[in-house]
Specification:
The protein is mostly helical and about 350 residues long. It has 12 helices and no strands. It has 2 domains: about 80 residues, no CATH class; about 220 residues, no CATH class. Helix content is about 75%, strand content about 0%. It starts with a helix and ends with a helix. One of its GO terms (molecular function) is sulfite transmembrane transporter activity.
Length: about 350
Amino acid sequence: MFSSAIAACRLLVRRTSPIIFAITMGTGAISGLFGVFPYAYHSRPIMILSLIVYFIDLFLFTLFTILAATKYICYPKTWVSMFQNPVNSLVSKQSHHFETMTAMWLLPVVTVIVTGTSGGVIANAFQPHVPHYALMTTVLSAFMVSIGLSLALMILTIYFMRLVVHGLPAGPAILSVFLPLGPTAQSGLAISLIGESFHVLIPLSDPSSSKFMTSVFASQVIETLCICISFVLWSLATMWACYALLAIGTRLKESIIPFRPSFWGLVFPNCVYANLTIRLAGTFDSTFFRVFGSIYAIATLILWICISIRAIWELRLLIVAPEISENITCASNESKIIHFQLPVQASARTSVTQLV
């Protein structure tokens, strides 16, 4: 029994990859979604649920960090394979082909936008105490969101062309069709927070500041412009959500999509889309946005629960029968060797499909 547990732990460490942090991204977004749910807003049961999910997410992040650190310390050669991986590697050697492109190209860009959103949240907390730092944080957030959104729109243009020319991604990579919701909806949320922050911080009380920073109308114009941009980005995200649902429906008619860790990539984009919808409901005092956002938030919560249950079941199989999982891993590695011997074009398609 003890040896079986040791074997399961070793296998768990060896199979750890950066994709597991998609679990903490999705779970953290679910926690935030509880905090903004428009019905029973900030009620005690809702806040308790939000805190429970938050501490679960904190525990998972700590656990995954330990697993990842253990893997790269005990198996240092995996650093090389990770940086040569066309999916996991974000900043080093990669081989890209237009026909094998997926929306996963957006993942490095989303991190910049999420950082900008975090800055908008922090700036709101700074405002009553240190408004000078709040203004600096807001400007930095606007800078990061501008960069992230610009790059995201460029990539989305290429991705849309790839869908038109080559059709839907093959195999389990079809799940990546929901990823465009991430940068579009997250940017809309960030810009909304930035506009709200500028509205509070401007005009400055210092008479030596520029006319723009001391103008009462400047803050109103900035906030109005940010709200309009947020709505445009929500509309763009809605379009991609419709495309994604149609793509998943089309693929399900052909075959069943097997469960993989990449299923966790569905949670975060849908969470931020629901979050932006609910925020626009408050901005416009709109019943439509409020009801639609609540329904979408509940659907995303159900999705998270279903994926969590299936993931726990897969983990149970790993712990109960690690020798079976080990055999499967070995067989999978052998199959990857065969795939890598194919021509370049087919090899690139197969490697992305295998790893996503």
